[in-house]
Amino acid sequence: MSKPVGLLWLPLIFTPVCVMLNSNFLLWITALAIRFTLIEGQAQYPVVTTNYGKIRGVRTPLPNEILGPVEQYLGVPYASPPTGERRFQPPEPPSSWTGIRNATQFAAVCPQYLDERSLLNDMLPVWFTANLDTVMTYVQDQNEDCLYLNIYVPTEDGANTKKSADDITSNDRGEDEDIHDQNSKKPVMVYIHGGSYMEGTGNIVDGSILASYGNVIVVTINYRLGVL
Known about the structure:
Keywords: Signal. This is Neuroligin-4, X-linked-like. The chain has five helices and ten strands, in the order αβββββαααββββαβ. By secondary structure, the protein is an alpha+beta fold. The protein is globular, with a radius of gyration of 19 Å.
């Protein structure tokens, strides 16, 4: 497969995952995409309203002058904790909450065992195992209460969000045009990590650059692994 010119090419592994992504989960993703109306759009810690309550994210600048900042909403629950009587059961919708829930840090990852390096070398690609020490830092905090997702939302700032008037044939006013339409719905990309159903986490995949460059909402998720 040839690499697209001018784009950052990331070798991603998409493994079919039987995580029972039922209608509740899909509705949750859709609701997030539709209802992402900013209350404090220009603040460092923007607040958005979801079907289950308000969440507070963090506005993160990118180390590139042509990419606008990205709003990150980390550790957002998409299901009730699968613990106790819910263990081994299909996921249930999360409970609503009052006030504003902080979504500025990753939630715990699902229980997994990553100490056997030789096994990992056989199961995972070289580009993954070459940075295994970095990967390990993302899976230290483990808990059965792990059904959370991370959302990366592009903003309308940055030099790359403007098209020159010379490049716009339909612009009779001779003005630069913002390529991000604030009134349009953004596409949503959901990334499901690989790992042979035994290890991994969506936390390790930073969707900030993809979100900003492609003007797309990027969602990464954690799902139950192993016997769970």
